[in-house]
Write a structure and sequence with these properties.
This protein is mainly beta. The N terminus is likely disordered. It has a twelve-stranded antiparallel barrel with strand order 1-2-3-4-5-6-7-8-9-10-11-12. 5% of the residues lie in helices and 70% in strands. The radius of gyration is 18 Å and the shape is globular. A hairpin with a 3-residue loop joins strand 6 and strand 7.
Length: 239
């Protein structure tokens, strides 16, 4: 686990170091969760999430990373790493084009790793004081390396919605929905949902609860469940 944690932070740290003179334009968001129980059943769960956003004139850079690790009675049962990097360029006040690459390593979902490279268009549907809604659509190329010892490449279509509601000055709700489909075999598709509610303590710290769902319609092997869910309470840092 100690070796994997730095990888989660790679995108945000790389971008910050590469554009040091623009630090004032960066926003960094980090979440940390840890639970350990003992007694009849010993469990340990660790999760972290980092988001880095940079905006200057017509260009925007977004880096995301998340890591989830868990074990019960000394046996590992969760080990998931996800990284994403995206460059957006505004074409009009609300319309933008983007290039994106993401990487998933999920030890217990049948993959050694899965990576997707894509390009597409996005639109800032809502931009108000209390509500923001962004929609994205992309075409890309997926490479999947399965734990069963085989790999597969295919063309991918992706659609995503990102919503943020500032309910009160110190209370914010966020919702991300993502749909990804194999365009060469449309019965193979993936759904992701990430919901969270955050309560600010002060300018830099907050407490949050989150619920994540990952669904794959056709897992790499029949013994793998289609749906993974995670509920987390986190300490959140923004700067």
């Amino acid at each position: 686990m100690k070796k994997t944690i730095p990888a989660v932070l790679f995108l945000s740290l790389f971008f910050v170091n590469s554009y040091g003179e623009e630090k004032k334009d960066w926003k960094i968001h980090g979440e940390l969760s840890y639970v350990k129980t003992s007694g009849n059943s010993k469990t340990e769960t660790f999760a972290t999430k980092v988001e880095a956003n940079w905006k200057k004139t017509v260009n925007r850079l977004i880096g995301k990373g998340s890591f989830l690790y868990g074990k019960t009675d000394g046996t590992e049962n969760t080990n998931k790493l996800y990284l994403l990097g995206r460059w957006e360029r505004l074409l009009t006040e609300r319309l933008f084009g983007f290039l994106q690459g993401d990487y998933l390593k999920d030890k217990f979902s049948g993959y050694n790793y899965k990576t997707v490279w894509s390009a597409g268009l996005g639109y800032d549907i809502l931009k108000t004081e209390h509500h923001t809604l962004k929609g994205l659509a992309a075409l890309g190329y997926t490479f999947s390396d399965y734990k069963a010892g085989k790999n597969k490449t295919y063309t991918t279509g992706t659609a995503e919605l990102d919503y943020k509601w500032k309910i009160r000055e110190n209370l914010t709700f966020k919702q991300m929905l993502n749909y990804q489909v194999n365009l060469e075999s449309t019965s193979v598709y993936f759904l992701k949902s990430d919901s969270s509610l955050q309560v600010k303590i002060n300018a830099n710290f907050a407490l949050g609860v989150g619920y994540r769902v990952f669904y794959q319609n056709k897992p790499p092997s029949p013994d793998i469940k289609k749906t993974d869910t995670t509920f987390l309470t986190s300490l959140i840092i923004d700067f």
